[in-house]
Amino acid sequence: MTITQAGLLRTGGAAAATAGLLFMMVQTLHPAEVVTNVATPRWAVVHDLTMLMAILGLLGVSAVYARHARRAGWVGLVGFLLLFTWLVLVSAFTFVEAFILPLLVVDAPRFVEAVLGIFSGQPGEMDLGLLAAAGPLSGVLYILGALGFGVATIRAGVLPRGAGGLLVVAALAPLAVSVLPHSFQRIAAVPMGLSLLWLGLALWWERRVEVTGSVHDRDSGEVDSKRWSA
Q1: How far apart are CA 94 and CA 100, in angstroms?
Q2: Calpha distance 43→76 (Å, rounded)
Q3: What tens digit of pLDDT does each residue of 177-218 get?
C-alpha cells in the first residue's frame, strides 16, 4: 500500500470528523461529576469515548493545520499548538478519571472528590496544590486555541470559513455560559464539535475528490498540475 500526502490528509479529515461527533456525544452522556458515579459502567463508557475523541482530535487538528499551514500564519500555528496541548491535557486527565479514580473511590473518596472538582468548579476539601491549576489552564488553552485556529482558518480560506467561524464561537461560548450550572455549560461544546465535524468532512471530501480525479487523469493520460497547487 502506497502512503500519500492526500491519503494522510484524508485520514486526518475522517479523524477530525469523528472527534467532533464524539465531542458532542460525550457531553450529552456525561454523568454528574460526583464520587458515586465514578465506578459506574456509564462513567467508564463516557471516559473511554472521551479518550478516543482526544486521540482522534490530535490527528484531526494536525491534518487540518497541515492543509492550510502556509496560509495560516503565526496565529494559526499558535492556535494549533494551544489546541493540540489542550487535547493532550484532556487525554491525560481522562486516563486518570477512567482508570485510576474508580480504584480509589472506596479508599480515598476525598481525593476523588477533589480531582473531580478541578473541572466541575466544585473543589473538594483536599488541597491538590499545583494540580488544581489544570482546570483554569485547560480553559485558557481551549479558548485561545479555538480563537486563534478559527481566525486563521477564516483568513486562510483553504477550508470552509464557516467552520472557522464556529471555532471562534466555540472560543466565546464558555464565557457566555459561565454563569450557568456546570451541567448546562456542556452545551458550549456544541460549536467545537460541529466545527471539527465540518472541517473533517471538508478535508476528507476534498482529498477524496483529488485522489479520484488523479486516478481518472492518469487513466486518460492527462495530469492536472493545478489540482495539487492549493
Answers
A1: 10
A2: 35
A3: 766 666 666 788 899 999 999 999 999 887 665 555 544 443
Distance, in Å, from the CA atom of 147 to the CA atom of 169, rounded to the nearest integer, reads 8
Q: What is the CA radius of gyration of the chain?
A: 20
Q: How far is Cα 121 from Cα 197, in angstroms, rounded to an integer?
A: 28
Query: Which residue type occupies 7?
Result: G
Cβ atoms of 119 and 33 closer than 8 Å: yes
Query: How many CB atoms are closer than 10 A to CB 161?
Result: 14
First-last CA distance in the chain? 25
Instruction: Using alpha carbons, list the distances in angstroms from residue 15 to 23, 166, 201, 204.
Output: 12, 18, 9, 9
Instruction: Please state, in angstroms and rounded to a whole number, the distance separating the CA atoms of residues 10 and 8.
Output: 5
**What is the pTM (predicted TM-score) of this model?**
0.84
